[in-house]
Design brief:
- The longest helix has 22 residues.
- With about 90 residues, the protein is mainly α.
- Helices cover about 30% and strands about 5% of the residues.
- Strand 1 and strand 2 form a beta hairpin.
- It has a two-stranded antiparallel sheet.
- The chain contains two helices and two strands.
Length: about 90
């Protein structure tokens, strides 16, 4: 298993001491060894799992309560509205 801890550190934009480099190299080897072991595990008789539980939410359903009458509360604090939606400043260009 050949990899470069310094390369990963540059990608993450962190500086590592020599001791940290050695520590992380050992840890990465352990992780990759475990992944290799998982790849070699026979899963042909394994049953797929979806969700892992049959529990249901104990909270109320998320439905619009039209009787409350506070729909639109706080709209006045937004500078712009378009097509019934509140318009917020761009985050990305």
């Amino acid at each position: 298993m050949e990899f470069d801890v310094e390369y990963f550190a540059r990608l993450a934009r962190i500086k590592l001491t020599e001791a940290e480099k050695k520590k992380f190299e050992r840890e990465l080897k352990d992780i990759l060894g475990y992944v290799k072991e998982l790849k070699n595990t026979d899963t042909k008789d394994a049953v797929p799992v979806t969700g892992g539980t049959s529990l249901r939410s104990v909270f109320r359903e998320d439905v619009l309560d039209k009787k409350r009458g506070d729909s639109g509360k706080g709209r006045g604090s937004f500078p712009e509205e378009k097509d019934g939606f509140l318009k917020v400043p761009k985050v990305f260009e």
